[in-house]
Amino acid sequence: MVSDIQHGCRNNVYTPRQLWSGNRSPVSVLYACSLFVMLSGGMAQEKLQAVKHDVPVSLAMLQLWSSFGTAHHNCPNGIHRGACLLDSSWQSVALIGLLAVSHFNQRDSRFVPAFNSSLVRACDKRLSLKGPIDIGGDAIGTLQQIADLKKDVAGLPDIFIGPITSDGSLSMVALAGLPLTTIISYWPSSPEASLSSRYPRFMRTIPSDNDLALAVCSFWEHEMQFEAAAVINSNDAKGERYKQALQRYCLEDVYMDLRSFAFEIGSPEGIEEAVKAFGQTGINIALVIASASDTVGVFELAVKHEVLRRSPPSLWAIADSVSPTDLFALSDEAKDAVDGSVRIVATGATETNPRWRRFVQEWPTFTPPPLSELLPSNWSTAAEFFSDFDVNASTVARDVGTFMYDAVAAAALQACVVAPQGPVPSTFGADFHDAKRNVSFAGLSGTVYFDEAGDRDPTSGNFILSNVLLNDSTREFSFVVRASLKASRWDWSEGQRNLVYNYRSESTPVARLQPPPPPPPPP
């Protein structure tokens, strides 16, 4: 635990427990402590020779600008590379990533104090960006962009920042035939990525779904005293791994009756079959783990088949893949049913984080960072966007952009640890990954540090529970934060559980129907 190490370093107390969770030699103890002191700015401020920050560490940044597979007449923001351009919230993520590169190169420490630490000021590295690359458009075009990085073998990226999804762009990196690659990701939360031997140098700044599953089970069992629940999930890496984590915690740790119903991605028939099967269980509590479009499909069919119930009240939950804008696609009848659902996610931004508060305050004053001119032309110019966009009100900026900024920060700081001076060595990738547990820093998403697998340590993550609420006049949704998870307990914003449930019910849901529904009629 980082707090243990800080205590040990400050008080000259060194025990194995205070060095994360492994056996460390005295040399590694001293190394970890000296690194903590340097990154936290606690080193005696000796005069350092002026160091030019001119040795490049190359980054390929994978971002999400568009969504392929939607009919073009349903693209309100226009078309980009044959796909629907996403809304402006995703422009905020793109710009936040570019800002992080610029801030490190300028040693601007307003949002990551370690950028001005003794270690970093003495480091001659700068980040050289290859990209950014949109991974949301046509798969063949995206694959070609990634494969083009191989043309200049000497210029291959040292680090990938990204990808967005565990299935899609991790596979694209592998299919493009790139050599063993160091990846720091900012949004895929599926445990699959860090477990897979295909990506032995994978790290992420967003907590894993393993940790999120524990938060969900804690809410269901400890807060609501539900004895049963169900998962309706797509059968991709995220859906399956998240479901397995829920089964492990909810079944084995808290002994709930947890059922699961999987469907093929994008299959209306598969979704309907899963929803109807769920309806026969008599269970009244459900979590949907799927893409935004498939989540909309699940809710429409749940209303059609009357398994999202008004009486007795249900409690359904949505995953982090769904934004308020996505739910606008629901029919009016489904919107009324979804009103009062919950959303439990790992969040990046918290109002208690002074670095995030300062970022929000200074957002309108930012100037366009280098390469912002490469973003889609249908979006606003960067200068207009900084002036007009409310970054603090954006779920995507808070829950994706913050992790993007800290992924870039982790790449930069770790590069300075393993190669503070001189050219990037041939062993850079292996050295970089080996050093992952020796770096921690304060960033936009809180204090960041990594475990042995390269996942963000769960104790450094922030988890929130929100009510999904419908505005009757605009028919638009918002996510209203009700609680945060602290020390394995939910801390409610008003001092007590202040939730409403589906159909905006104020009555506490029941986990099962009594008696269960009758079996379906014979075909």
UniProtKB/TrEMBL annotation:
Subcellular compartments: Membrane
Q: Which parts of the sequence belong to the Receptor ligand binding region domain?
A: 142-458
Q: Which Gene3D superfamilies match?
A: 3.40.50.2300
State the source organism's domain of life. Answer: Eukaryota
Q: Which keywords describe this protein according to UniProt?
A: Membrane, Transmembrane, Transmembrane helix
Is Lyase among this UniProt entry's keywords?
no
Q: What is its main location?
A: membrane
This entry carries the following GO cellular component terms, namely:
membrane
Q: Does the keyword Transmembrane apply?
A: yes
Which residue ranges run through the membrane? none
Database matches in PANTHER family: LEUCINE-SPECIFIC-BINDING PROTEIN, PERIPLASMIC BINDING PROTEIN OF ABC TRANSPORTER FOR NATURAL AMINO ACIDS
Provide the protein name: Receptor ligand binding region domain-containing protein
Q: Which organism is it from?
A: Chrysotila carterae
